[in-house]
Amino acid sequence: MKITVIGSGYVGLVTAACFSETGLDVWCMDTDRDKVDRLNAGRCPIYEPSLPELIARNSAAGRLHFTTDLSVCLDGADVAFIAVGTPEGEDGSADVSYVRNVAHSVGRLMHDDLVVVVKSTVPVGTCAEVESILRDELAARNADFTFDVASNPEFLKEGHAVNDFMTPDRVIIGVQSERARAVMAELYRPFMMSADRILFMDRASSEMTKYTANAMLATRISFMNDIACLCERVGAKVDMVRRGIGMDQRIGPKFLYAGCGYGGSCFPKDVKALIATAASHGCRMDVLEAVERVNARQKTVLFEKISRHFGGDPAGRTVAVWGLAFKPGTDDMREAPSLVLIDALLKAGCRVRAFDPVAMDRAHAILGDAVFFAPDMYAAAEGADALAVVTEWKQFRLPDWKRLHELMASPVVFDGRNVYREETLAQAGFTGYRIG
Predict the structure, then answer these.
(1) Cα torsion for 189, 192, 195, 197, to the nearest 10°?
(2) Final residue of a structural domain among 201, 222, 257
(3) Residue 263 CB: number of other CB atoms within 10 A?
């Protein structure tokens, strides 16, 4: 079976590489010539554990190809995945113009019967729109090919994407025909050898499932951040509250960690898109609007704690920032809480010394020379009046407290991810501030 993946971004690359690992002939197409050249030269353009090795192995075996020529990709293809971006529009809605453009191109260039799969995160009704575009393009050519459009949203966690694809907890597929169902079942069969975790449904429900999943996870995070705020006021400890409610099987322990806000390419964009979708249908998402407000507020919490510690005037202070990516395991800086903190510190007249294990280049492209990018975590802390931990990378979990104490101008830690115990900080001679 030959499959085509259109778009070599995060989702497209993981999809193409993982399918090629099963022995399929996979062609990945992108309009960015420079990116395609880098991929063909064996250079992975994103940071994702195990992905570079997967790409290199399958490219060398002749199962994975990268090109800018969509016609070549579609020649003999059985399935074409659309995995292009759906960025946030000015009104918060998802911009599906790239998906539409791909649908037009596929309709103009497809050579035979084809199953077109929308992998991009798209609003409800997009698959129906893609189907209409394909039908119109084929009619304009007087071409009589059979095609199906399926929805197959991704549920990949950055930093764990390859494992998520290879051993998924579920695969959601929206189809309108038995032919599409059969093709998709065969395509995912290699990943279902131990248990069948495919859930087939209608396309609209499939599209809605993706947004609802991310909205629910974002809601849990914002809910706990709200609780953390109250805990600080009443003298409770949010970590104990989290453990207590997480033992309830109806609730469970995941995504209940208080912190300095969520970021990334999915949660912020998808929450806004779901709110916008509801508004376009005359419905208001009151809970999700509150989720957004809480998250925006939470990204300012670390700066507020730092400002209060220095008497409301942190100007002239040097602050070390550990962690720049929105989460560990990725170099993704989109909607990262670190950007909100650093912007506030710079505007307040602070000097910022930052370090991240993998996101330094991406952060420098955004922040420029306004921030000193240190070669390691201890160099970032040298001479600092305060240390803010924003991303919970594993290498930050057990620092050399004695060395850190000697390097810093004043031993103060603002723990934005509740990595450290209060007793640990106190015993090491540090003043510690946590969330909740």
Answers:
(1) -90
(2) 201
(3) 24
Report the number of distinct structural domains present in the chain.
3
Question: Looking at the domain assignment, is residue 206 inside a domain?
Answer: no
Q: Tell me which of 28, 127, 231, 266 is the catalytic residue.
A: 266
Length of the chain: 436
CA–CA separation, 292 and 268 (whole Å): 8
pLDDT digits (tens, 9 = 90+) for 131-160: 999 999 999 999 989 999 999 999 999 999
CB 151 within 8 A of CB 127: yes
Does the predicted TM-score (pTM) go above 0.85? yes
Q: Which of 231, 266, 298 is the last residue of a domain?
A: 298
Helix axes 337-347, 360-367, angle to 10 degrees: 40
CA distance 366 to 162: 27
Amino acid identity of residue 6, one-letter, is: I
Kindly state whether residues 62 and 182 are assigned to the same domain: yes
* 350 in active site: no
Residues 217 and 195 both lie in one domain? no
Residue pair 321/313 in contact (Cβ under 8 Å)? The answer is: no
